From TrEMBL:
It comes from Geodermatophilus maliterrae. The lineage of its organism: Bacteria, Bacillati, Actinomycetota, Actinomycetes, Geodermatophilales. InterPro entries: Solute-binding_3/MltF_N, SsuA/THI5. Its main location: periplasm. Residues 1-23 form the signal peptide. Keywords: Signal. This is ABC transporter substrate-binding protein. It is found in: Periplasm. The keyword Ion transport does not apply.
Amino acid sequence: MSHRPFTRRATSAVAGLAVVALAATGCGGDDADTGGGGGGEGGTGEMTTIQIGTLPIANAAPMYLGIQEGFFEEEGLEVEETVLQSGNEIITGMVAGDYDVGFVGYISAGIAAARNVPVCVLTASDATGTTPEDDWQVMVAAGDSPIQTPQDFVGKTVSVNALGGVAEVMIKAALDQEGVDWRSVEMIEVPFPEVPAAIQAGRIDAGYTSEPFVTTVLDQGGKVVFAPQSAIAPEYPNGSYSTSLQLYQEEADLMERFEAAMTRSLEYARDNPDAIREIIPTYTQIPADVANRMRLPVYQPELKVDEIDEQMGFLEEYEIVEEAPSADDLICG
């Protein structure tokens, strides 16, 4: 596949409001009340149930906010969400027909597509921050750690939540950009929630984690030492909503209505951070106090095609897959 070169861009090509989907092989639920595409629009009063596989993290907040604000109802959609623990579980569920749409990262979707799983990206969702001071998915270390810059990672042990996943790919790409040989850094697996304890125990020199665990480390006197994704580019695309190629092709109306509601939800979330902080504790185990202080994702309605294509190139460059899809191949439509 042809991928755009690894260069920074002041602006990004945007796939407008094009419908994009990460594929599962069918829609979930009973035929009587899911999919179908015909029941929910045009003011008929009928509702179509849409099954969504999601994660218990702040990134998913716009969907819950959109449900609360009635954006999905206005599109004739009743959302039934299932909370899982990983993008891989969501993709597996979509393929099995358990979910119509799944909340997964572009990297996860690209790996699945490269392995002939029929998925495509339907809508954008979220992006990283702009600097180590506001990014919500970063590398952290103890407050007295000698690590100050990416160059200090040489010879150190750092954690990622899963080898061969988003964290490993992005850290390698960011270190390359900073002129650091990523081969000089040992990477081990430590789940995000365990990073604060691993740092305190000295098991790792630095750990890649996400909110609310970044705030936990800071509360313990730790520090942020590197923000890989925002180092590659500010507001770098992270998450998406995907569907199966089969569902996208067979239920175009359903997908169009979901995209419209989700885009509106993301725009509302971007403009109402207080509402995001208020809703996060309602579907996660994040306490209200932490939700009020933690760093929030950047909610991104636009599909940034150049950056997505660049990420697909990383999958090949770092030998995660032999041949990755291009962004055009990954995005539905």
